TrEMBL record:
PANTHER family documented for this protein: SIGMA L-DEPENDENT TRANSCRIPTIONAL REGULATOR YQIR-RELATED, TRANSCRIPTIONAL REGULATORY PROTEIN
Name of the protein this chain belongs to: Sigma-54 dependent transcriptional regulator
SUPFAM superfamilies: Homeodomain-like (SSF46689), P-loop containing nucleoside triphosphate hydrolases (SSF52540)
Ranges for domain Sigma-54 factor interaction: 13-242
Pfam families: AAA_lid_14, HTH_8, Sigma54_activat
Organism the protein comes from: Flavivirga aquimarina
InterPro entries according to UniProt: AAA+_ATPase, AAA_lid_NorR, Homeodomain-like_sf, HTH_Fis, P-loop_NTPase, Sigma_54_int, Sigma_54_int_dom_ATP-bd_1, Sigma_54_int_dom_ATP-bd_2
Lineage: superkingdom: Bacteria
Keywords: ATP-binding, Nucleotide-binding, Transcription, Transcription regulation
């Protein structure tokens, strides 16, 4: 069996804490089996290496390894991504498509952020875990696949089970073996080691001398709470490597790079009460605006849904009146709203719509709605961005907490982070 040290080298894993070694050892032990593994641990602790180790040390290593970020795929398409779909299964399904479970037959699938899977997908996953069976979306033909599943999560799955967001039976099926990666603050002896490795990597990358820490700086680094774990440590090593002229980093320089709310120092009292009151009021206002935008989007979605499903004159009439209700009357026949929109896919008018004139009408209304939405978006965009940034900062980048505070799902937050490139 390959030694733990050579595995670490092969997969670029730094550290020597017993709890880290135990996690890697467990991965080595379970690799040759087909047992499902659940990797747990806070964000940024290095969960992504474990499924790679498991795959590479298994008899599946010559077959596919597919990593799926369950939190990043929209709910509407995730079943089709994972299990494929039949031609015509839904609007836009012009071809039969293989899903990851078909493509990875004989290999390994890594389901990252598995706690984000919608409940309907969880049912499909349970079936595939239990007997290797699955159905493409829109098909009634049972297919077989032989896939080893490694899942990961940085959220408390028991909480998710309690809130009925995650199936208990699936949880136990996924976590036959649980591999837990410790947070960095429980691996203090690895912190400086990791920093030195990152500093030397970045020196190479940016062709500059390696930054070094003074002893007090090392102490400060080691005592820090590291809410974002190794990812955060790596970011700070990169910033120091790029920005600091003096390559010897003192504690006071380092202090500037560590988020203050995140240190182990006693809480700092806010400078001015009125200032903090103002900022909290502003945040409430942002939240209201944010919620309003969500509502607006929901309404838009509902409208689109009704339009999609409707295939009789009556329903179309209802759609029109619904739009009027939501967006007001546009009896003034403003021609600027009359040009038909280009992307007809968005509405997908049924083919047997009674007459062309009605199609144009519906599109006009839709276009009108889009114009209003655009204006709203322009004014809300910055607010939303700022609110998300603030919330993420407050929670040291922990999406789960930020999402809870913002009152949106982690999935939505994830998409917004991608969208705004945060
Ligand atoms: N022991 C380690 N040695 C070197 N680099 C590491 C180690 N652990 C993690 N890293 C690095 O830290 C970063 C974050 O790791 P990773 O993406 O695996 O986190 P994660 O646990 O999947 O977090 P999340 O739950 O947020 O997805 C990566 O760049 C990874 O290479
Ligand atoms: Mg990850």
């Amino acid at each position: 069996m390959e030694s733990i040290q050579s595995i670490k080298q092969r997969f670029g894993i730094i550290g020597n804490t017993p709890s880290l070694n135990r996690a890697i050892e467990k991965a080595i032990q379970v690799a040759p089996t087909d047992i499902s593994v659940l990797v747990t641990g806070e964000s940024g602790v290095g969960k992504e290496s474990i499924p790679k180790i498991i795959h590479q040390l298994s008899h599946r290593k010559h077959n596919k390894y597919i990593a799926v970020n369950c939190g990043a795929i929209p709910e509407g398409t995730i079943d089709s991504e994972l299990f494929g779909h039949e031609k015509g299964a839904f609007t836009g399904a012009t071809q039969t498509r293989e899903g990851y479970f078909e493509v990875a037959d004989g290999g390994t699938i890594f389901l990252d952020e598995v706690g984000e899977l919608p409940l309907t997908t969880q049912v499909r996953l349970l079936r595939v875990l239990e007997n290797g069976e699955f159905l493409k979306v829109g098909s009634s033909k049972v297919q077989k696949t032989n896939v080893r599943i490694v899942a990961a999560t940085n959220v408390n799955m028991f909480e998710a089970i309690d809130k009925e967001k995650f199936r208990e039976d699936l949880y136990y099926r996924l976590s036959t073996v649980d591999i837990h990666l410790p947070p960095l603050r429980e691996r203090r002896e690895d912190i400086h080691l990791l920093f030195r490795k990152f500093a030397s990597d970045f020196a190479l990358k940016y062709k500059m001398p390696t930054v070094k820490l003074t002893d007090p700086a090392v102490q400060m680094l080691t005592k820090h709470r590291w809410g974002g774990n190794i990812r955060q440590l790596r970011n700070i090593a990169e910033q120091l490597s790029v920005l600091e002229q003096d390559r010897t980093i003192s504690a006071s320089t380092l202090q500037n790079y560590l988020p203050s709310a995140n240190t182990n120092l006693p809480a700092v009292i806010k400078t001015s009460k009125s200032e903090s009151d103002f900022s909290s009021e502003r945040e409430i206002l942002y939240k209201v605006l944010f919620d309003m935008k969500s509502d607006l989007n929901d309404l838009k979605k509902l409208t689109m849904e009704l339009m999609k499903n409707g295939n009789t004159k009556d329903v179309e009439k209802n759609n029109e009146s619904l739009i009027q209700k939501i967006y007001g009357n546009d009896d003034d026949n403003d021609t600027s709203f009359k040009e038909p929109i280009e992307n007809n896919d968005v509405i997908s008018i049924p083919e047997h719509t009674p007459s062309d004139i009605e199609i144009v009408n519906i599109q006009d209304k839709y276009h009108f709605a889009e114009e209003i939405e655009e204006e709203e978006t322009l004014s809300l965009h910055d607010k939303e961005l700022e609110l998300i940034k603030k919330s993420l900062e407050r929670h040291n980048g922990k999406r789960k907490l930020a999402a809870a505070e913002l009152g949106i799902s982690e999935r939505t937050l994830y998409r917004k982070i991608k969208q705004y490139d945060l």
